[in-house]
Amino acid sequence: MSLLVPLYVHPAEDPGAWHRLIASADRTYAVVLNPADGPGSAPDPAYTAAARALRAAGARLLGYVDTDYGVRDRALIVEEARRHQTWYAADGCFLDRVTAGPEGLPACRRTVRELRRLGTGTVVLNPGVHPAPGYARLADLTVTFEGHWTTYVSAFTRPPWTARHPPDRFCHLVYGVPEALVPLAVRTARERGAAVSGPVTGEPPNPWAGLSPALTGQEDVEG
Fold this sequence. Notes:
Oligomer: single chain
Radius of gyration: 16 Å
Structural class: alpha/beta
Helix content: 25-40%
Strand content: 15-25%
Largest sheet: 8 strands, parallel
Order of helices and strands: EHEHEHEHEHEHEHEH
Number of strands: 8
Distance between the termini: 11 Å
């Protein structure tokens, strides 16, 4: 099982969730660190400790950086990625709200190149939809669906170009999944060509404030 885990709750607010995440680190593809809609303006000691424990448990760490669909300046994006590396020893970068159209591809390519020069190992792009095909060639992982379970089961479509890439290059992040259907959500992602997934039961405004039952072992998703 390979789960991408965006846990957007402060370690001091829900230390139990972070302890369970550390204990389940071997079931993750990566953990997204998001102290303050990015790295923040100074290191957060609670996140520093959590990151250290996750690394010791074998987890890959991705620093959250918002691109605001290409509006944010590239220099700010790269600087935030550098802070994640310096403060939390992040292995890679989770670029959120990435453009999806072909017109945004050249700028995204330049951003990824600068991140690679910075020493960023794993680059995850999250347009939240299937982007123009060129995006998938830039990243180690592309999130091609982020949305509610009801949308996922009723309106998901998979463009033919995705079949040219291995499933471990794609991820589906699904929230609002009924707990009993979490195993089905993982299997459905696999069937739809995404070897990495992140089904959670949470709802907006912050569905990522809790861990997936698939991660904590409350559900058997291997069947």
